[in-house]
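Deliverable D4.2, example record:
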Amino acid sequence: MSDTAVIIVSAGKSTRMNGVDKQFAPIGDKTVIETSISAFEKCESVLQIIVVVANENIQKLQAIIDKLELSKPVTICEGSSTRQKSVFSALEHVDKSAKFIAVHDGARPLVKPEHIENTIKDARVFGAAVLGVPVKDTIKVCDGGFVKDTPPRSSLFITQTPQVFSKRVYFEGVDFALEHNLDFTDDCQLVEAIGTKVYMTLGDYENIKITTPEDIKIAQVMLGY
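Output generated by the structure prediction step:
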């Protein structure tokens, strides 16, 4: 059942990549963004893919996509000044038949198709789901340089992407954010703000986010290169 519109956000500035645009950095025989797109291309639940990139990268990405043999339609749109605004710019391209919206960081190329499918399945049941993993370390809450609290590790998770929502719930969150002039850095916050509970779907620790040049090397090792 193909009912999910995927928005891949790839409009960041790559400020910690020493001048390299991480979306077009090679990992093996593909770029980071190609690898991310390929993961969703393999998912039966995915209806369409919308990629948000900076204006100067639109033609470059289009040339890459034109060479790929993709069975799902891919739309490229221009990003904006914040993550939330970039996602909102993609919403006008969502197919009317889509029942769910998945938002994914383009800089997470190692996400596995089975984990994408599991997150979508959980969103179908609960209305909203996010991929994540339990934290491994003890976390301290500090105030003024001093430890204020130690939350139980069993309740703490590292949030990843994709984050998947029913289209109705997501658009309600969008309307709330626009009405109250809110700009969230995490899509789950949109639906949490209107009282929707988000289910945590278990993924794995390989779904890293490419942030520094060292992460590219780690990704290559994980892919066997």
